[in-house]
């Protein structure tokens, strides 16, 4: 991930984007690294949030491209189980999109929201809000505590 750091804000954007797809790594480390490098806090927040959000939208789209027949064939999941999962997704609806920032299961939420064709605009708004809250908290914690811990 060092090469991403060398790219500055572009590296932060790319890393945040990739971290929100099916590539397993944490964008928080990139954000903290940018903060240690004394980057502009507002630019770090905007760059990480937008990159991570667009990555989640990409993951949503990957799910959207999925077909029930593929899941049944390749993952050996029967249609009844998919319908039970859909009813759970429908129960909470696009609100689940707020939680796509969660490690590991967040990507699954994004894929499922797309696969089950939940309203894209609602999902996009909740995803953006969740990502913004996540990075806002990380940056705030760093500003309050990070400089004291690492001084």
Please give a structural write-up.
- The protein has 151 residues and is mainly alpha-helical.
- It has one domain.
- 75% of the residues lie in helices and 0% in strands.
- It is built from eight helices and no strands.
- Helix 3 packs across helix 8 (120-149) and helix 4 (41-65) packs across helix 7 (105-115).
- The protein is elongated, with a radius of gyration of 17 Å.
- The model has no long low-confidence stretch (mean pLDDT 87).
SSE inventory with pairings:
Elements: H1 2-6, H2 9-19, H3 27-36, H4 41-65, H5 68-74, H6 79-92, H7 105-115, H8 120-149
Short synopsis of the structure:
With 151 residues, the chain is mainly alpha-helical.
Mean pLDDT: 87
SS element count, helices: 8
Largest sheet: none
Q: Order of SSEs, N→C?
A: HHHHHHHH
Main traits of this protein?
8 helices; 151 residues; mainly alpha
């Amino acid at each position: 991930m060092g090469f991403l750091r060398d790219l500055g804000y572009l590296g932060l954007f790319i890393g945040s984007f990739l971290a929100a797809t099916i590539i397993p790594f944490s964008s928080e480390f990139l954000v903290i690294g940018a903060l240690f490098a004394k980057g502009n806090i507002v630019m770090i927040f905007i760059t990480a949030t937008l990159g991570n959000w667009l990555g989640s939208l990409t993951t949503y789209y990957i799910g959207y491209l999925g077909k029930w027949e593929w899941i049944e064939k390749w993952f050996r999941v029967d249609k009844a189980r998919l319908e039970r999962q859909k009813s759970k997704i429908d129960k909470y609806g696009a609100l689940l999109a707020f939680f796509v920032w969660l490690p590991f299961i967040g990507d699954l939420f994004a894929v499922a929201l797309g696969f089950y064709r939940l309203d894209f605009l609602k999902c996009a708004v909740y995803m953006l809000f969740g990502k913004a809250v996540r990075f806002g908290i990380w940056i705030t914690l760093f500003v309050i505590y990070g400089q004291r811990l690492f001084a």
